[in-house]
Amino acid sequence: MAKLIITVAVTGSVPTKQQNPHLPITPDEIADTARRCRDAGASIIHVHARDQTGKPTLDPDVFAAIARAIRAQCPDLIIQISTGGRAGADPQMRAAAVRQLKPEMASLTTGSVNFPDRIYENSNEVIEFLARAQKESGTKPEMEIFDTGMIETAVALADKGLADRPLHFDFVLGLPGGTQPATPRQLLHLVESIPCDSTWTVAGIGRHQLPMGVLGILLGGHVRVGLEDNLYYAKGALASNATLVERIARIATELGREIASPNQAREILGLRRCA
User: Fold this and answer.
1) Single pTM value for the model
2) Domain total of the chain
3) Is 77 domain-assigned?
4) Which candidate, 78, 71, 2, 73, places its Cα nearest to that of 42?
5) 1 part of a folded domain
6) If you write DSSP's letter for every residue of 1-63 in order, what string do you get?
7) % of the chain at pLDDT higher than 70
8) In sequence order, what are the beta bridge partners of 79?
9) What is the pLDDT of residues 169-223, one digit of tens each?
């Protein structure tokens, strides 16, 4: 079984410091968090950007400042930037940071989702536009899968030459409007629906983060944790990004699954460059 890649989604577009004071917002806060998570076992940091008021932004200069700050503290950490639409619907802006920074990885949601507060709209035209931007930038997409039909769309991108095989998927379970319920059967169905040469990560939302993460370890996949998806360590107890990484790394080790370093994760994912 391959070593476990731990992704930490540290900020997101929705959580606030009022909900959890450990949430990193500024580039320096995100970099400090990245260092602690790297030390705890994370290989990939999934990055959203916030402006000076704390609101989500797609400004590539803010993403660049975050990347510089992370590199200063964690030169080997894999930076995966978000192209999500919560910070703005304009596909040009969603692709701007990818085109400017040419990161090793970026997210790519391959369908629309009825989020509790809005419709997260991703037409086929927008999906292909973002895929082309990532392909031209040498960036490996992480296909963000909120329901099974999005897998077919991701595979179609590869068939059209807009994404390189083997594909990498992130299965998001437990989000209202997405794949429900977050159960072993649902995760197994998703895993069995992707091309056999693919790699995959599971991201459980809220209270589903821990059980889905343990299933990911046992099934040979990889795991995403972090405050973007889950603000709590246990009921009533706020988490930090580092404590969530520490817990999944400890469980994996106790279950006999070794933790991948960033460069080992690069090898597993077939990324284009090594730090």
Assistant:
1) 0.97
2) 1
3) yes
4) 78
5) no
6) -PPBPEEEE---SS--TTT-TT---SHHHHHHHHHHHHHHT--EEEE-EE-TTS-EE--HHHH
7) 98
8) 45
9) 999 999 988 888 999 999 999 999 999 999 999 999 999 999 999 999 999 999 9
